[in-house]
Amino acid sequence: MSHSVSYGRDGDVGIVTVNNPPVNALSSHVRQGLTEAFAQAAADDTIATVLICEGRTFIAGADISEFGKPSSGPNFLETLGAIENLPKPVVAAIHGTALGGGLETALCCHYRVAVPSARVGLPEVHLGLLPGAGGTQRLPRLMGAQAALDAITNGTHIGAKAAHAQGVIDELVEEGRLREGAIAFARNIAARGAPLKRVRDLNDKVSGVDPRIFDVARAAARKSKRGFQAPLNCIACVEAACTLPFDEGMKRERELFNELVTGSQSAAQRHIFFAERAAAKVDDMPADVKPLAIRTVGVIGAGTMGGGIAMNFANVGIPVVLLEMEKAALDRGLAVIRGNYERTAKRGGMSIEQVEQRMALITPTLDYAALATVDLVIEAVYENMEVKKTVFTKLDQVAKPDAILASNTSTLDVDEIAAVTKRPHKVIGTHFFSPANVMKLLEIVRGAKTSHETLATTLAVCKAINKIGVVVGVCDGFVGNRMVHRYISQANYMLEEGALPHEVDDPVYELGFAMGPLTMSDLAGLDVGWRIRQGKGLPEKLPPGERYCEIADSLCELGRYGQKTGAGYYRYDAATRERQRDPEIEKLIVEHAKTKGITRRAIAPTEVVERLMYSLINEGAWILEEGIAQRASDIDVIYVYGYGVPSYLGGPMFYADQVGLDKVYARVCEFAKADPASWHPAPLLKKLAESGGKFNA
Ligand code: 3HC
User: Does residue 333's CB lie within 6 angstroms of at least one atom of ligand 1?
Assistant: First the structure.
């Protein structure tokens, strides 16, 4: 029998045990093992069989790394058929997470018991897939069409208690006594001579369903999951469960699953799944480094960023000391935090008691001395080197010697900040994205002297507050903003060369981006970049041979800072915030080109997409070459979680691999020929293009 599945007995009950760490995925050897174990169970003179898993979880799904590769061993349906068709009761004993193919396996058992801490769900949609081993046909038969539709199209994890209430779990057993509980349950079922409850035979919850629920679900998915194919296929499958006999529904599920698993969206989303997990790994981290315990945190600055950062800690029960310089600013910051929580409570996202619990975890202060005992301080003050240096000098004096000092800078040199302290090994950058309580991404900026312990602790903190951390090196703008600088510059160059704002934005929006570069600039606030450029003495101090576009500066001079002033590259409706074209700006752009002696030309949407995407990709290649990012997939994670690139594109570097690096490089060279001041082809891109390589090999 396969090494990952074993068969044994506990008296008159057969026990099939899966042991495939870390998450008991249904790899081909597990499917093989299960098929053999259930054949043995069938032949054995037991009265029932329990399916249970070793380790931290029940089967957490198909083995995602096997998709897209030639398959071997029995397929899912053969294996699960062997379980469902066993002529004596089979009981799934669930702990940890029964997800995807794991829940589908449990649904083929005749009964399911679980410990209260377990969770179940069909999260395939997050991988660009649908539950392809009968989940779309069986789950609605147990919990009803509407509940299953919601769970499958959103990929929700459902707690065991709720799953019990919904009929998915038959019995909850005491925590820590799963095996005994499941065996007792199985014996009881067999002793009572209870019928084998095959979910496929249940029909009452899928007949007579109002067909309009599917149109409503489709409209919602098109809006909230714009461009994603998997949610629509999920809906079609649940619809099939309600309109077709079981076997035909299964056939439909298979067709729609195959369409997804062979498509580009799922390949990209699976890439992001593994990329996200790889991002937490630091190549040179010694195995014996242990993160420090972070029990309390200090945040300096109660503005939008500081307040959002503080909320992250309060959300997971970590006490925060929130420091401001003036009472009015502190009160304002606290009021904003409270307002955010109360809005969530109003929408049903938390109770009023939880609002108060979280607020109670935030201790406001005007006194640096209150930071003396915290384990980690994150500074979120104004983005200016001198201001940051003053803060860090002070912090170094008041914080306890082993406290970590982090800067929420988005561009500044972390090494220069660290140099004003006596503990540069304890200094690190934590670049949160706005709004910091919502955005999943955290760029963790490793300085030249940041210790492994500080880095490991920051990664652990990042996981504790449910963020996705990516370790990056020190350079102007780190990974995300350094690349976006090239991207926004191209957008502005295209304006002066012949495009209007919507002609720049719409093609990447159509590609799937949450918004185009100019809409994004309007949202972020044009004054931010303007101040940075002024601080650098631009355009007067522009290095020779560099290109500069003055359009954004002109907008700021007109007081058009973007959405917050109701106007930027576009005009914004005061009530709806909807973007509108603005003839005044379109005129300004045309005049600007005339002044600079540029003959405007029509720029095709394909060229717009190429210039925007390839400017990101080329800069990403430089970043990899310089070791600022550890791996191409880290850049992809940053763009998916921080810059609104849909996971179905897999991020800019994965996108480049799909296009073909030879094609990308050839176009970059053409652009560089036409505009050598703004395009500098990256040697790594050239090397990979010439060798037929990929960024994500
Ligand atoms: N296949 C292959 N590897 C998997 C995996 C899977 N289904 N699930 C997790 N892993 C790997 C991870 O890549 C990671 O590997 P690493 O240590 O080398 O980086 C390791 O297992 C641990 O995973 P996490 O770091 O995510 O561990 P957590 O404890 O934080 O989370 C989990 C555990 C909740 C199970 C989470 O891993 C998860 O959500 N996994 C995916 C679940 C899923 O999507 N299942 C459906 C798969 S598709 C399917 O079943 C199709 C079917 O319908 C036919």
Answer: no
State the Cα–Cα distance between residues 74 and 133, nearest whole angstrom: 13
pTM of this structure: 0.95
Give which of 488, 485, 465 is closest to 475, Cα–Cα. 485
**CA 453 to chain CA centroid, nearest Å:** 25
Segment 350-398, tens digit of pLDDT: 999 999 999 999 999 999 999 999 999 999 998 889 999 999 999 999 9
Q: Give me the pLDDT at residue 523, please.
A: 93
Residue (of 282, 269, 274) closest to 462 by Cα position: 282
**pLDDT, block means (10 residues), the chain with 697 residues:** 91 98 97 97 97 98 94 92 97 98 98 98 98 98 97 98 98 97 97 93 93 97 97 98 97 98 97 96 96 98 95 98 97 97 95 97 97 97 91 97 96 95 98 94 97 98 97 95 96 98 98 97 92 88 91 97 95 92 96 96 98 98 97 98 97 98 98 96 98 95
Residue 683 tokens read as: 């040697």
Integer Cα distance of 174 and 276 in angstroms: 34
Pocket lining: 261 vs ligand 1, CB cutoff 6 Å: no
Helix (H) or strand (E) holding 354, with range, is helix 352-360
Ligand 1 pocket, residue 83 CB under 6 Å:
no
Separation between Cα atoms, residue 331 and residue 343, nearest integer Å:
18
Choose the catalytic residue: 54, 66, 78, 104.
104
- What whole-number distance in Å separates Cα of residue 63 and Cα of residue 462? 26
Query: Rounded to an integer, what is the distance from CA 456 to the centroid of its chain?
Result: 20
Which residues have C-beta within 8 Å of that of residue 43, sequence separation ≥ 6?
none
Confidence at residue 554, expressed as pLDDT on a 0 to 100 scale: 96
HEC profile of 491-543: HHHHHHHCCCHHHHHHHHHHHCCCCCHHHHHHHHCHHHHHHHHHHCCCCCCCC
Alpha-carbon distances of 372 from 311, 312, 377, 405, 602, rounded to whole Å: 21, 21, 10, 12, 61
Which of the listed residues 30, 57, 64 should we mutate to test ligand 1's pocket, taking the one with most ligand atoms within 8 A of CB? Answer: 64
What's the confidence (pLDDT) of residue 364? 98
Known catalytic residue at 557:
no
The tokens for 270 are 């699976």
Q: Is the CB of 128 under 6 A from ligand 1?
A: no
What's the CA gap between 549 and 427, in Å, rounded? 36
Residue 670 annotated as catalytic: no
Radius of gyration of the chain (CA): 28
What is the pLDDT, as a whole number, of residue 411?
86
Closest by CA to 448, choosing from 424, 431, 430, is 424
Tracing tokens 């004054």 back to the chain, one arrives at: 527
User: Which of 148, 365, 381 lies closest to 253, judged by CA?
Assistant: 148
What's at 459, amino acid-wise?
A: L
Instruction: Give residue 289's pLDDT.
Output: 97
For the beta carbon of residue 560, count every other beta carbon within 10 angstroms: 23
**Helix, strand, or coil (residue 314):** helix
CA of 570 to the centre of ligand 1 (A): 43
pLDDT at 384: 87
The pLDDT value recorded for residue 1 is 62
User: Which domains are present in the chain?
Assistant: 5-261 (3.90.226.10), 297-472 (3.40.50.720), 480-691 (1.10.1040.50)
pLDDT, position 536: 86
